[in-house]
Amino acid sequence: MLRSVLRRSSTASASSLLRRGYSSESHPERKVAVLGAAGGIGQPLALLMKLNPLVSNLALYDIAGTPGVATDVSHVNTRSEVAGYMGEEQLGQALEGSDVVIIPAGVPRKPGMTRDDLFNINAGIVKSLCTAIAKYCPNALVNMISNPVNSTVPIAAEVFKKAGTYDEKKLFGVTTLDVVRAKTFFAGKAKVSVADVNIPVVGGHAGITILPLFSQATPKANFSDEDIQALTKRTQDGGTEVVEAKAGKGSATLSMAYAGAIFADACLKGLNGVPDVIECSFVQSSITELSFFASKVKLGKNGVEEVLGLGPLSDYEKQGLEALMPELKSSIEKGIEFANKS
Length: 342
Description:
Blueprint: H1 2-8, H2 14-21, E1 31-35, H3 42-50, E2 57-62, H4 66-74, E3 81-86, H5 91-95, E4 100-103, H6 115-136, E5 141-144, H7 149-163, E6 171-173, H8 176-190, E7 201-203, E8 210-212, H9 225-236, H10 238-245, H11 253-271, E9 277-284, E10 292-300, E11 303-307, H12 315-340
Parallel strand pairs: 1-2, 1-4, 2-3, 4-5, 5-6
Antiparallel strand pairs: 7-8, 9-10, 10-11
Helix pairs in contact: 3-4, 3-11, 6-7, 7-12, 8-9
């Protein structure tokens, strides 16, 4: 639903889009909380979730600025009721009863900033938010956007384990932006409609840990080895491309909000019993020797229904997989160590 609405938006007026995109068909009551809703990703993500007809209650939380964002978004004439919450004392209210919690909170990457720099700030934020999730909505599906995802997802898992609420089926690292980029870059190079393109992206969500499986792309394209390498590198460096293009004035906030909305929509469809909902995500996994890994995941009423295998890889992809493992292992261990040291 969300995908088709977003695809049509360039050709339809706003009023006709809303008339056609959102019927009065009944959907279950679903509460979605966005933590970090006043930020660069949070604001457009809040708007996109307001547009989603599967959401009946939208809770927007941040340490400051949320009442304004919530009031603004609440004027959009779609199904969900919107409430804004601000400051730690209101975090519990924002979370209570949530079916899906999306976490874009934290600082974005700036030019020259490493993912280690991000880790030092965002790890603590994620830890405190997940402590509250364990207390107020332990059964919610948690969609982790805050970077570095390769470390923040393991942090969340450890926090939930300590609280006795961990369910591996309900914790997701949102890697959808890697898939969105791979599809876009592939379609542009192959000169095919991007709406018809499907490409799994596996591994992690940073640099070389991002491994797009162009050998499994549909439709097929006869690319040279050089083309595949260039497309892979561009997908891996997509975030840096945006940071540099914005010249110190932001990171990939809009495309990340779009990707976050696509993944949250998939989670809601799974919860509602829609069959065969499959997206790539960074989850607890046994398909490699690492405890967390991104691959295709089938979503259902309890979150993860099945973690799907990697499928056949090209020689280039096998090399990429081998190369990414040490870095991804280190990032996972760094998150676990942080969560357990205090």
